[in-house]
Each structure stands twice: as C-alpha cells, then as structure tokens.
Amino acid sequence: MPEQDDLSLRCDHAQKIARRAGELALEGRARVLNGGIANKGPQDFVTEVDRKVEEFIREQLASHFPQDAFLGEEDGGQWENSGTWVVDPIDGTTNYIRGLPSWGVSIAYLQDGVVRIGVIHDPVHRKTYAARLGQGATLNGRPLAIRPPEGDIASSLVILGTNAASPAEEHTQLISHLFAAGAEYRRTGSAAIGLAMVAEGVAEAYYEGRLNSWDALAGMLICQETGLKALNAGLAQHMRGPSPVLAGRQDVVALIRREPSVAAKPLVELGADA
Asked: Which domains are delineated in the chain?
C-alpha cells in the first residue's frame, strides 16, 4: 500500500505539470494552425504540439519519479503494477485545432491495480481538477462538493461521447432513450473535460461506448471522489484497449444502463475487476 504522503507529493506535482503542459499547448496553437497536423484515422488528429506536450509531461514525471512507468496516448509506453502514469497530453485535439474551448490535459496514476490519482487541467478556463483515492476531489485547490445520489431525471443533462469506431445506431438509440425520460444531452468532444464537468455538477452523467484509458481514468476517479458512480469494463481490460465508460449520479447512471446497447456491456465500478 503506498504511503499517503507519497501520493500527496505525486498529486501535487501532477497538478503543476498539467498546468505547465496546458500553457505549452496554448503557446503552440498558433503553430498548429500553420501546419503540423497529422491524421491517425477518420476525425482522429494529432499535432506536433500533442507530441511535444506529452514529451514534456513524460520528462517532468521521470525527473521527479524515475521509478515510475509511463503510458501516453501519442508515444505509448507500458503499464507496470508497481506504478504507472497514464497520460493524454491534449484530450480533444479536434477541438484544439479548430479553436473550440473543450480540451485539456489528463494525467492518472495507477498503482497495485488501482487508480490512485487523477488530474485534469482545462487551460482555456484555467481549471485544475484533482483527486486522490479516498481523499476527495478538488477544483483549483478547493474541495468539490459531494453530489447527491438522486434528483429529477427530467431536468438532468448527460454528456455523450462517440467516435468513428462506435456504431452510430448505438449513439442515436441512447439519445432517444434519454429524450423519452425527459433528459437532455450534449457532446463536448473531450471525454476528460466531459467527466470533469460531471464531477463539478455541470452535468449529471457521462457515457461513451469505446474510450481509451488515457482519456478516462483521471476523470473517472475525480467523479468517484465526489460521490458519483464510475464504471468501466474493469481496469485490467481497460488498460488493454477501449472500454465503455459511464460516470455520474446514481439514478441517471441506472437510466443509461437500461438502454439495451448499454445493458449488453458488462460494467463494474472503478477499482473492481470484471
């Protein structure tokens, strides 16, 4: 079991590194608009800034915690049970390229098969969300309120994510399911920011059918530490590839899980194994 002081130190450094990484991304955006964009797949972009920001985060973490492993979206790495940083340098690259404000830096720390630290930095709005397992979550250093388990579903807002690898029918069927219950939905284009908004109370839930670990784990822990449900296919499976991710208020999570395409996917709470 890692010492709390050790995790506190890691969490503090991760927040500082995430904020500086966000500054680098903001500084580099003008260069992106003049080129330096590559296409990884349909509507799946990477810029030279993504790679430089990831390199910066990797180097900074290695300088403070040389014993830790690193897994990044752009340049990979490997997951080690003794301690691994899982990083998306710019989650929401399409938004970043087009000047839309929903994008951010996501950093999670895993140890002994558990997500222990989650940090998301929103550079445009200067918001830093952070959580340590069992220690609550904060926004710019102030505790995020524990969210109530239930409310009025008819006034709830759900953030939905999707991508080219997910069947369009599942997305549209889930929208119809939410509308039938009186709920509304939005799509942010960044899972990390969407999950942070749920933790903050801007929305009641987030769902995406196929989401990588570097997009989701930090935000899932932040949500969990505000008293919300956070579900995936199990950490070991999620580290091997994309997983469904569902986080939010208990009653809205239950509503989403009743939609047939979601119900067909086995989900467990963050920290449990499938």
From this structure: 4-143 (3.30.540.10), 153-269 (3.40.190.80)
